[in-house]
Design a protein that fits this description.
The chain is of the alpha+beta class. Helix content is 41%, strand content 20%. The two termini are 53 Å apart.
């Protein structure tokens, strides 16, 4: 969330940002109103405490002189009662203020394209071979012909949008994971396997649960959610801590299984293993000083570009517009792979600069010569395996139904070059 000093000192910036997003400014005005009330209650409470201290001294003086202090005791009782009410109202008002504050989105970077929805996202780069203009066989049909996944039996034991990956396709997934890890390891990212559960308090530090709770799986009767991406535990790991960020940012490569409900209706191109409830992912996370975050955002994006250029599938880079960016990010880029079967560009990577929005929510700081400050947090997909597999399958299919394995992945598959149709 935004620091309170922004609401107090620069409310115009928040109102202008909400206008860009086509949001009502009432959510910010609620915060400012409640903050004013809270500060008034703090002042009132301080006055009551001062009165109580003064009366306490007077009672002491009367007792020393052997005089009756009952009148003062009665007055003290009234002040204590008012102070208890004040403290209760102060606490409730602070909770209401912070709840309202959590709903105010991050302030966007000035360069974010203005637009209503994903139709206004701006293409800023095209990579890889020219997209095939003729429609191809969909990945969901091909995975059956190569005996690479078993969706029907997975549905029997777990429901729709689950899958068994089998044989060479399972090996190809492991190759993708190793490939992404190797690239990030060479770039000094610390490999990290996080917990796959998080409690609500930690989750509220990294996402807007009003937007995200419907996506996640809640463990019944327990304060746990299954993670939707390793970005969430890797960032919330440092909740309520003061970090040491010296010459270099903190860089992490998270490897996890992720779980998402993926509610709502989806088209034919989302079937197969494209939009599923469980998938493996390698994620990039950076925690850095505010002055470094724009450069680190470029680094994350360039890492993702390098990974997908190595896979030799066509993709483009998209600058996400104001109407499609979500609550937490100040700037976001997506990589979208070309899917020949549906003749569509489809998202395979998201790279976000969240500035200090998550660190404020997490009460995460870093040490500075002047004291402490909130770091900036950034994240980007390295590889989401099922989507990368689907893109490889559709773009590398051959007339005989086989799939060419990207050259760069073959060393993890005993130099096998093709997955043959069964």
């Amino acid at each position: 969330m935004l620091e309170m000093k922004v609401f107090r000192e620069k409310p115009g910036e928040i109102f202008a940002d909400l206008q860009k997003r086509k949001h009502s400014d009432e959510i910010a005005k609620d915060v400012i109103k409640l903050d004013g009330k809270w500060r008034g209650l703090i002042e009132e409470g301080n006055k009551l405490r001062a009165q109580r201290n003064s009366i306490s001294r007077e009672i002491g003086d009367f007792k020393k002189k052997g005089k009756d202090g009952k009148a003062f005791l009665k007055k003290m009782s009234g002040i204590n009662s008012n102070l208890a009410k004040n403290e209760n109202e102060t606490k409730k008002t602070l909770e209401m203020r912070n709840h309202a504050r959590m709903r105010v989105p991050n302030i966007l970077e000035n360069e974010v394209p203005i637009g209503k929805d994903d139709e206004s996202n701006k293409e800023i780069g095209l990579h890889g071979p020219k997209p095939n203009e003729s429609k191809s066989t969909s990945h969901q049909e091909i995975i059956e012909s190569i005996n690479g996944a078993d969706l029907k039996r997975a549905a029997k034991i777990a429901g729709r949008r689950f899958y068994f990956l089998t044989g060479d396709l399972a090996r190809l997934e492991m190759a993708l994971i190793n490939y992404a890890i190797d690239i990030l390891y060479e770039k000094k990212y610390t490999l990290t396997i996080p917990p796959f559960f998080m409690n609500r308090d930690a989750y509220e530090g990294v996402v807007d649960l009003n937007d995200f709770e419907d996506v996640m799986y809640k463990i019944e009767d327990q304060d746990f959610y299954l993670i939707a991406t390793s970005e969430h535990p890797l960032t919330s790991r440092f909740k309520d801590e003061i970090l040491e960020i010296k010459n270099e940012p903190l860089r992490y490569a998270g490897v996890s299984t992720n779980f998402r409900k993926e509610v709502g209706a989806h088209g034919l191109s989302d079937r197969g293993i494209w939009r599923v409830h469980q998938f493996a992912k390698v994620e990039q996370v950076i925690i850095c000083k505010p002055e470094d975050s724009k450069e680190m955002h470029k680094e994350l994006l360039n890492n993702a570009i390098e990974i997908f250029e190595g896979l030799e599938i066509p993709f483009r880079v998209v600058d996400i517009c104001t109407g499609d960016i979500g609550t937490v990010a100040a700037r976001k880029y997506d990589l979208e792979a070309w899917m020949p079967a549906s003749q569509q560009w489809k998202e395979i990577v998201s790279a976000s600069n969240c500035t200090s929005y998550q660190s404020v929510r997490l009460n995460m700081r870093y040490r500075t010569p002047e004291g402490t400050n909130y770091p900036h947090t950034l994240n980007a997909t390295a590889i989401a395996t099922t989507r990368a597999l689907a893109a490889i399958i559709e773009n590398n299919q051959q007339k005989d139904g086989s799939i060419v394995i990207p050259q760069i992945l073959r060393k993890w598959m005993a130099n096998q070059d093709v997955i043959k149709s069964q």
